[in-house]
Structures
1.
Amino acid sequence: MKLLFLLFFLSLQLIARSQSQIEMADDFRGEGKIYVVIMVVLLLLGGIFFTLFRFDKRLSQLEKQMGEEK
């Protein structure tokens, strides 16, 4: 198991070294579109976290109500 784990990480290092330049990222950076991509990702993550926070708050209220009824 340890050998398989070691081989996996060694192969990842070899792949990372061989792909030193990513064309798509360079194009986005060169045209200024990388900032749009970053903003979209941040907005999506913010929406997900906000939804999870609201869901947790409502769930806590329901748990509190269930505890009071017992």
2.
Amino acid sequence: MLVGSLASATLAAQWIRHPTAGLPRLADGTVNLSAPTPRTADGKPELSGIWTSDEVDPRRPNVPPNPHDANPSRRMINLGVDLPGGLPYQPWLAALVKEHRANNSKNDPHVRCMPLNFLRGYGMPHLLKFVQTPGLLLVLNEWNAGYRQVFTDGRPLPEDPNPSWQGYSSARWSGDTLVVDTIGMRDDVWIDWGGAVLTESARVREEIRRPDLGHLEIRVTVDDQKAYTKPWTVLIKERLIVDSELIDEICLENEKSLQHMK
């Protein structure tokens, strides 16, 4: 896929160097990312902003900073990279992950331009835009113009959801932490390049905190007895992208990779 070339060809036409309004800045004009957490009118942390992984893959070349610099995460290959022993796969999933890694994950839905599940989206080099409104947190993914809805209006989770890529998310505030519960994913949703998946039985809880202006901490707990031998938890870190905007990244537009992976 020509992600890099598609992005570079459109930079001049995008608002990627337009200053983000309303942010505290230092004497040199840069945004003070350590400034206090912004808050909404009702006193809750304001989660709106453009985000990318703050857990850079150490194998990534050292490149100059860019206002639109979306980081590939060290979790991109293996979401459970920091768990002792890795993700606790059920035997069938351990065998499947081994097979995927042996064939360079050629069956990856992402390679075929299918949507990204939200867990995987946190680690991929595509920007995520959070738009917080009363009753709804909307997450826009520049990859294939994807979206996720996290309802904060008190609605219960559906009893018999139609399986989907993003599932169904209902959230509530616990102090300064947004607690998001999600069910109703498909059986074939990949959550990393290694081929780990979620199934329809999965329940995912995210505890989202914004400790300061420039950072998010997302504690994710997955309980999926069909795919894993026990629940597992990882802490995902994101950083704020400023003076930038989303750029169209449509996978099937001039896509070249799939023909080489068959």
